[in-house]
TrEMBL record:
Signal peptide: none annotated. This is ABC transporter ATP-binding protein. InterPro entries: AAA+_ATPase, ABC_transporter-like_ATP-bd, P-loop_NTPase. GO terms for molecular function: ATP binding. The keyword Nucleotide-binding applies. Residues 21-246 form the ABC transporter domain. It comes from the Bacteria. The keyword Repeat does not apply. Pfam families: ABC_tran. Gene3D superfamilies: P-loop containing nucleotide triphosphate hydrolases (3.40.50.300). Keywords: ATP-binding, Cell membrane, Membrane, Nucleotide-binding.
């Protein structure tokens, strides 16, 4: 891992004894293109981890490696198994919705349940029926007659009816409206998460998922630049809201990011508490996940928008 990544990763977040995923120096390549560079992290049980990064940051590649679809350098263990060499055993024990997931359009929901029962030993049709009751979809509906949001709900109901310890979701709410996204996340948290199971979820809806997450991993151009619990994030990163008159002094203290809050007031984020004389120039506020994301990932377009 690069110096930058090491500086921002959080060893206190790792609990190897409870870990469902352990990666050390994980590197992923497509020919000469490096999609992920020497990432080390672990995901313990009972966590809801957001995987954030701009387009091309490496999120899908990492998820593919976790389910054995992409060869990896370094070491990787998922549910105690090697994804590449014990893929079949692994797939019996985890749920995965890839970003390109589709359900067969010709099928009825009841037929999908029969299919799942045949393919996945840990699938419970009774559980899927329970979960479907949360949606407006019935078993006799055909996939081709459902809206995009309904299809996604069916997909989640089918996958969440698998008795697994780990769920990996690659941008599961892409293309859904805000109500559909909300009901998707409600079903996920209320019906699947039980304090023992963990979810790794990639998304661009940073603001929306903040309240769901226990932890966040941020990728920037293939580097893991932050891996931290939301609790520790609040303790570690300090944002100061300040008057324009103090902007120069604040800038000289080298914050991670200077930005404008809603309402136009200036603010700056520091990694750790700034010196007392700098802290005295502003009012401490809580940095949002979006603000931190902008501070730690380099997307010129986004930075320009916030300036
Ligand atoms: N099949 C492939 N062949 C070559 N390069 C690839 C391939 N798939 C991905 N890449 C490259 O690997 C890098 C990471 O891509 P990846 O799809 O993992 O990013 P991502 O964070 O999921 O992006 P997005 O948010 O746009 O889905 C990118 O530079 C991409 O161009």
């Amino acid at each position: 891992m690069t110096t930058h990544a090491q500086g921002l990763s959080n060893p206190a977040n790792s609990q190897p004894g409870d870990a469902l995923i352990t990666a050390h120096d994980l590197t992923l390549r497509y020919g000469s293109k490096t999609a992920l560079e020497r990432a080390s992290f672990s995901i313990p049980k009972g966590r809801v981890v957001g995987l954030l990064g701009h387009n091309g940051a490496g999120k899908t590649s990492l998820m593919k490696a976790l389910v054995g679809l992409l060869p990896a350098d370094g070491s990787l263990s998922v549910l105690g198994l090697s994804p590449r060499h014990q893929r079949n055993a692994l797939l019996e024990q985890l749920c995965y919705i890839p970003d390109v997931a589709v359900l067969p359009r010709w099928a009825k929901v009841s037929e999908l349940m029969t299919l799942m029962g045949g393919l996945q030993p840990r699938f419970s049709a009774a559980r899927a029926r329970e979960l479907l009751k949360r949606t407006s979809v019935s078993e006799s509906d055909k996939v081709k007659n459902l809206s995009k949001g309904m299809v996604t709900q069916v997909h989640l109901a089918l996958v969440a009816a698998i008795d697994a310890r780990l769920m990996i979701l690659d941008e599961p709410t892409l293309g859904l409206d805000v109500i559909s996204r909300k009901s998707f996340y409600e079903m996920l948290i209320e019906e699947w998460c039980d304090g023992e199971r963990s979810v790794l979820i990639s998304t661009h809806q940073v603001e929306e998922v903040e309240s769901l997450l226990s932890d966040v991993m941020m990728l920037d151009e293939g580097r893991l630049v932050l891996n931290i619990s939301l609790e520790d994030m609040d303790k570690r990163f300090v944002a100061l809201s300040h008057d324009p008159a103090t902007a120069e002094a604040i800038a000289n203290a080298h914050p991670l990011l200077r930005y404008r809050q809603q309402g136009g007031r200036s603010a700056a984020i520091f990694d750790g508490a700034p010196p007392a004389e700098i802290a005295a120039l502003g009012e401490r506020i809580r940095p949002s996940l979006v603000d931190l994301f902008m501070a730690l990932t380099r997307n010129p377009a986004l930075h320009a928008k916030r300036a």
